[in-house]
Amino acid sequence: MELANRTELLGMDLKSLESYMQSLGEPRYRANQIFAWIYRKAVGSFYEMSDIPKELRLRLDAAAQVSIPRVLKQRVSADGTRKFLFEMNDKKRIEAVVIPQSRDKHTRYSLCISTQVGCPLGCLFCATGQSGFQRNLQTYEMVGQVLGSRREMTRKLKTDDQDLITNVVYMGMGEPMLNYDAVISSIRALNDHKGINIGQRHITISTAGEVQGIRRLAEEGLQVTLAISLHACNDELRDRLIPLNRKYPLQAVVEAVDHYTTRTNRRVTFEYIMLDDVNTSPEDARAMIALIKPLLANVNLIPYNEVSGLEYKKPSSARIRRFYNLLADAGLNVTLREEHGGDIEAACGQLSTARER
Ligand code: SF4
């Protein structure tokens, strides 16, 4: 049972854990042991920490907790993508998606995690956006998705390989920049080489264009990848698809990206969900070229994953190809994203716990 006044150890760095153990009158090396149990072995129960004296395990259990979230349900796609439904301490539910990077048995995995319960931005094509906003996730709840997913994957795959998740993308439920401080501290926790050890260059933060967050990220000194959900190249359409555009129109987003790339010298990725008869005309392609060509940026085209209850459709293959060619011929760095998990509603824009209850 979780008690409100227990100290949460998940999300603490080694220094904070050392201070905590000292506050209990324990030597500092105990912090190293507990740190390894939490972050290397994804163990959340003090009773399983076998090199800790029993008396201390009992005391820790009364005073502290390690809230690696429980997987309530999981669905597996034909392509190996897995969607986890996690339950937080307060019973709120969120989703995370594990995506294999290849089809061989030594494959590594990318994990897409959530930053909020629901999302306040209400993008028109997005199942999360249609289900409303409940609250921000805390640092430990984001780190917990990584450990909870890893624990489940090692069990399923019958392996003790603790490094099988190599990439983390902040692209699940929620807008990361609206939960900025907790997102940044979770990145630092994931990146700790003594712990989960995910390289900064293997971490991506995706935003719908929250300009203040982009500008703050430019000053963090992090080597993470910034992705922008573009989805429209004129303000009239983008205002409709992504209501945040009314606050931060395209010009403001482009200026923030330009500032970011100048400060960090890191290439930004523009994600573009292709919606049939909405944003895939030759005119849309020309508008994108004019907008993005001057920037240090890639474009990632994502054919829409249909969401039941929403009107949008995926374009035909011919239309997707024509759009792609227009961009590539103009010299844009463009990729077409392989789709993952569409059959289990785990693909981009499909996450919604409303269906999973
Ligand atoms: S696309 Fe992202 S920002 Fe927009 S509503 Fe969905 S989760 Fe929120």
What would a concise description of this structure say?
This protein is an alpha/beta fold and 357 residues long.
Question: Can you walk me through this structure?
Answer:
This protein has 2 domains: 7-65, Orthogonal Bundle (DNA polymerase, domain 1), CATH 1.10.150; 70-356, Aldolase class I (TIM Barrel), CATH 3.20.20.70. The chain is 34% helix and 20% strand. The chain is built from 11 helices and 14 strands. A hairpin with an 8-residue loop joins strand 5 and strand 6 (109-113). Helix 5 (139-157) crosses helix 6, helix 7 runs parallel beside helix 9 (250-264) and helix 10 packs parallel to helix 11. It starts with 6 loop residues before the first strand and ends in a 21-residue tail after the last strand. It binds iron/sulfur cluster (SF4). Iron/sulfur cluster (SF4) binds at residues 119, 121-123, 126, 128-129, 173-175, 208, 229, 349.
Notable characteristics:
34% helix, 2 domains, two-stranded parallel sheet, single chain, TIM Barrel, 357 residues, alpha/beta, 10-stranded mixed sheet, DNA polymerase, domain 1, binds iron/sulfur cluster
Low-confidence stretches: none
What small molecules does the structure contain?
A: iron/sulfur cluster
| Overall CATH class of the largest domain | Alpha Beta
Major sheet: size, sense and barrel closure? 10 strands, mixed
Strand order of the largest sheet: 3-4-5-6-9-10-11-12-13-14
Give the CA-based shape: elongated
- The structural class is alpha/beta
Query: Which fold name fills CATH's third level, the topology of the largest domain?
Result: TIM Barrel
Can you count the beta strands?
A: 14
**Average of per-residue pLDDT values:** 92
Secondary-structure element series: EHHHEEEEEEHEHEHEHEHHEHEHE
- Structural domain count: 2
